[in-house]
Amino acid sequence: MTTLQDIPLQRIDGAPATLGDYRGKVLLVVNVASKCGLTPQYEGLEKLYEVRRDQGLEVLGFPANNFKGQEPGTNEEIQQFCTLNYGVRFPLFSKISVTGGDQHPLYAELTRAHPQTTGDGPFRERLRSRGAEPAAGEVLWNFEKFLIGRNGEVAGRFAPDVTADDPRLLEAIDAELAKAA
Fold it and tell me: What confidence score (pLDDT) does residue 1 get?
C-alpha cells in the first residue's frame, strides 16, 4: 500500500523526492502561486520556516496554476521569483495540479485524508460571491495549507487566507512539533 510519504514528487530543480525524505519532521504543504493576491504569504511562510525549522518544521511549496492562471511560469521562473522577491529558502517542488482531472496524487491523498478546512468560511463566501464554488473537500485556492505530523498523517488543513502567523495554524504546528517522532 502506498502511503502519503511514498508518493513520487519532483523538486523544482527536477530531482526526485518524496515526503518520506522528511520523515520524522512536521510538514506544512502549501500550494503556491506567484501572481495571486495571496502571494505575499511567501514572506510569512519563509519567516515561519526560519523560526521553526530547528524545531523540526519543514514548509514545502508546490506551485500550481489551477486558479485563474496565477502561476504561469516555468519551474525556473518560479524559483527565481520566490528567491528574488521573498528570499524563499524553504523547499519548492515542480509545478503540479492540485485539483481537477489532472490532480497530482499527493493532493488527491491530502484532500481525501482531511476534507475539512479550518477557516474556509469567509474565503469560500468570497469565492461564491465571485461565481466560483469549489466542491466540498477540494482545494479552495492558492495558499491552502496541509499540516502533516511527524507520524506522516495529515493533522490539519487551513484555508488560503489563514496566514502563517494565524494563531490557529501556529497552535496546530506547535502541537505537532511537541509530539515525538
Answer: 65
